[in-house]
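Possible race condition, two jobs.
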Amino acid sequence: MEEGSNPKWEGKATANLVGSTPEQVWPLLEDFCNLNKYLTTLDTCYRVEGELGKPGLIRYCGATVPSPSGGDEKLTLWCHEKLLAMDPIGRLMTYVVLDNNMGFKSYESTIKLLPIDGDDEPGCRIEWSFVTDPVEGNTQEDLVNYLNSSVRTMAMNMENALKSLWKEIRKEKIPLVDNVDASFLGRICGCYSFDYFKVLLVLM
């Protein structure tokens, strides 16, 4: 290491989802361009270019925060993020931050979905890790704290989304995928923005 150079910052955060298996949660997590559905601190998240679920996919993420100058002024923090890898079998994805106004010069993150063993009730764990160059105006602890808050928010919202979906399925008394009513299917897909069939098959 060159004298005076700064070491990389690394960190990791985890959150558990109780009552949901990795097979049930993965369709939500792999929805790369709808992160704001579950990470609700984001105002928006959408596809910029690339094929959904494929390496090279780029998304835009934006969040409105109070301006450092104070008062009623607001500031939009934004970044473009590029998907490097998506592994539906290992249930993990890796992405990097590209253009941004948040001070990131080199940031890579991996999100994994892991089973929780040894419990009577099914469950899984989201593990979110990062490696980055030091970010001016922040500390490594700041980033880890943000990651902890973010992954807990995601886990809670994903858990609630799956519970709501399961209630809808029970209410409609759907016996088989082949018999799903088209209007119901459209309503569910519109509400949750993920592949309904994948989740339905592992719930039944």
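Job #2 (started ~2 s after job #1):
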Amino acid sequence: MAHDENASASDAEDYMSDMYTAIDIRPGIVTTHTQTRRLKIESKQVENMERLRNRPKISEMEKKMRDDGLAKPVEADSKGFLLLSKMGYKPGMSLGVEKEGRSEGIKEPIALELKSNRSGLGHDTEEDERRKKRMRIYQAAVSARAKAHEALIDDFSERKRWAVHLKQLSTDLQKSRKVCQELDARLSEITDYLRSTHCYCIWCGAQYDSEEELENSCPGKTRISHAGVDEDN
């Protein structure tokens, strides 16, 4: 019996479920006053959200109003225009000093510059000067580094040229030494030939009658062996 009561309780419909709280908005379905009011409120909220989303920003609105105001010419019935008219101003004329019949004044209004910070007048100019000074210092430092780099490059190029020059000198010296060795060998051959064949010594500058006289009278076969003899003579 208790089991049947629990089953009947579980099978009972929950009147607080989504099936009863959800609003059916299909055409032709009868709704209550509360449901209709709820639908109107939700629709109004959606419209307000769309309106806020599509509304331009305050800064854009201010800029548009400012541009529209500056684009309009000064009205003829304004006090400023009346004062200028009394002083001889006419539309199209420029404001300023005339020199040699020409006006150097302005015809367009002075451009409006908005300040995005709370600094005083002239602060931006000082900041620009400081910024320019820092830029000049930076450019000077860059220029100094560039010159130092160029000096290093020139020094490196000079060392490289000097190394090439030394290498060329070494090559020329080796060639000259080789030529000297070849000439010394040929001179030795010629000297030996003259001594053995003609009994003539080029260092003595004399021809002897025999090889025995050549060996006894000539100091030697080289210039070095004749050096002391030349000094004594």
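Helices lie at 2-11, 18-21, 33-54, 58-71, 79-86, 123-198, 211-217, 223-232.
Logs attached separately.
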